[in-house]
């Protein structure tokens, strides 16, 4: 399934002539091969936060982690994030193999952490899927694969979270937050800012994901209000 695809993608790139150019692909594959397959979740809830850049994921995940005494994780996981810039400059298929592999490596961390405390995650599979789907077409959301297409399914061999919250803010507020933050953006995020059709395709892809689907949260309110809404949703959907 998905892990096989991303393994073969990375393997292909390791064994191809570009391997000399991307030695990190070999190191990534070694890490991936060490991860046990079909990881099981522990007894604590696993909650994922998704959304476009600057919708407030970092802010809210930190607060939720503090409130619930939880463990905060992100995709791509810290153990491979030093290679991110290398893969971000590669062609689309190599870049996506990196992010896909990162989700499987993260699954091992989630399995372990969820035996200790609630796990809060900043991006996971839905990010990889939504940005990939949105990149593969151009133009309006009408051009996306139809709702219920299998591209919107969660990979059957990847550990599932209990709850996925999709943070959305209106485009003007999002740009204000991006500007206020003033951090260096990934190339793709710079493009997002200017390309509103791409942004719409990413959000619509997020909304079509199923099993688990994303629950949308309007994140335009103040940090305190957003935190309150999110904590209510978590206590409604997860046994804490
Ligand atoms: N609810 C909010 N209202 C106003 N500003 C916010 C809110 N949440 C986050 N911000 C600000 O917006 C910027 C982007 O937030 P951040 O949490 O880094 O988003 P992300 O992790 O989704 O990229 C930051 O400068 C942050 O302080
Ligand atoms: N699990 C993940 C995480 C990120 N990605 C990709 C999707 C986009 O190209 C970028 C977004 O990452 P970026 O660092 O800009 O986002 P944040 O600042 O963390 O909100 O990474 C992914 O494909 N899969």
Explained architecture:
There is one protein chain. This protein has a single domain (2-237), classed as Rossmann fold. The chain has helices at residues 2-15, 23-34, 57-68, 84-88, 92-113, 125-136, 171-181, 187-194, 196-208, 223-237; strands at residues 46-50, 71-74, 119-122, 163-168, 215-218. It has ten helices and five strands. The two termini are 32 Å apart. The longest helix has 22 residues, at 92-113. The structure holds adenosine-5'-diphosphate (ADP) and deoxycytidine diphosphate. Residues 49-228 form the Thymidylate kinase-like domain. One of its GO terms (cellular component) is mitochondrion. Its EC number is 2.7.4.14, 2.7.4.9.
Query: Class in CATH?
Result: Alpha Beta
Q: What molecules are bound to this protein?
A: adenosine-5'-diphosphate, deoxycytidine diphosphate
Largest sheet: 5 strands, parallel
The average pLDDT score comes to: 90
The CATH level-2 architecture is identified as 3-Layer(aba) Sandwich
Strand order of the largest sheet: 2-3-1-4-5
Structural class determined from secondary elements: alpha/beta
Rg, Cα atoms, Å:
17 Å
What sequence of helices (H) and strands (E) makes up the elements?
Answer: HHEHEHHEHEHHHEH
* C-alpha geometry: globular
Tell me the helix content: 40-55%
Core attributes:
240 residues, alpha/beta, Rossmann fold, 5 strands, binds deoxycytidine diphosphate, mitochondrion
